[in-house]
Amino acid sequence: MNNADLFTLRDVSFAYGPTPVLQDVNLSLVPGKFYGLIGPNGCGKTTFLDLLTGCKKQLTGTIDYKAKELSHYSKKSLAQQLALVPQEFDTGFGFTVEEIVLMGRHPHIDRFSAPSKQDWFFVDQAMKCIGITGLRDRYTNSLSGGQKQRAVVARALAQNAPVLLFDEATSSLDVKYTLQIFNIARKLVQMEKRTVIAVIHNLNLAAAYCDYSIFMKEGRIAQHGPTADTMTAETIAEVFDVQAKVVFDPFNQTRQVSFQYFE
Predict the structure, then answer these.
(1) Closest Cα partner for 144 from 155, 132, 156?
(2) pLDDT tens-digit profile of 125-147?
(3) Which one of 12, 82, 144, 195 counts the least CB within 10 Å of its CB?
(4) Is residue 104 part of a domain?
């Protein structure tokens, strides 16, 4: 392990009962990168994130965060370090958008204490960044699915953690707001040296935004490395069993993927 590593996974496996989900995962992640977790449904991507956040415990192997075993961190200290945007978040019926975003500050607020000026600063900045300031007093049961998801993303931004984990964070968003979220994430990586680890199904988004891609198949890491090296037709065929072509798109100034629609 390198002392500069953010996460180090050694021989990690996980299973639900007798069903293996992750097997023999060995990987090191460094700070200040945009990582893409890519693979078919059911290959273990969400479980991988759950292990990184400490929500689940691996069956074998070790996971270190900043050179210290993940299990040695308290839940509060991990919540100050890692902000997760899940696939689904039960916003309930009794919360406003402002209250949802304020939840991102809870790891930083002492028990029985009121939010500080700094806490409200991060809440206001997060809502402004996502463009939902006008929704702050709306109850979540009056929002669309996309509006709710944007509030959950703002909650993670308000947490102001050095690591952001996205589990299909933009799956319910239209093109405009998907690009907004990914642009914000990329700026945080480039300008503030934060780390983003994102489960992404859209290969073109992964090609455009991710510095480093981790391709998973059947609970194992099939390929990993800089996206420019790993986002290839051969890797896509190996992982997804589909024919694809990867070319440079001058309009986007990045590689993009097209698929063979007919057998």
Answers:
(1) 132
(2) 999 999 999 999 999 889 998 99
(3) 144
(4) no
Tally the domains of the chain.
1
DSSP of the chain: --TT-SEEEEEEEEEETTEEEEEEEEEEE-SS-EEEEE--TTSSHHHHHHHHHTSS--SEEEEEETTEEGGGS-HHHHHHHEEEE-S-----SS-BHHHHHHGGGGGGS-TTPPP-HHHHHHHHHHHHHHT-GGGTTSBGGGS-HHHHHHHHHHHHHHHT-SEEEEESTTTTS-HHHHHHHHHHHHHHHHHH--EEEEE---HHHHHHH-SEEEEEETTEEEEEEEHHHH-SHHHHHHHH---EEEEEETTTTEEEEEE----
- Binning pLDDT at 50, 70 and 90, where does residue 172 land? confident
**Is 254 contained in some domain?**
yes
Distance, CA of 155 to CA of 99 (rounded, Å): 9
CA torsion sign for 18, 42, 217, 262 is positive
CATH number of the domain where residue 78 is located: 3.40.50.300
Q: Which residues pair with 215 in a beta bridge?
A: 38, 223
Cross-strand bridge partners of residue 71: none
Residue 213 token pair: 């891609």
Question: Which residue range is the domain that position 238 belongs to?
Answer: 7-98+161-259
Residue 108 falls inside a structural domain = no
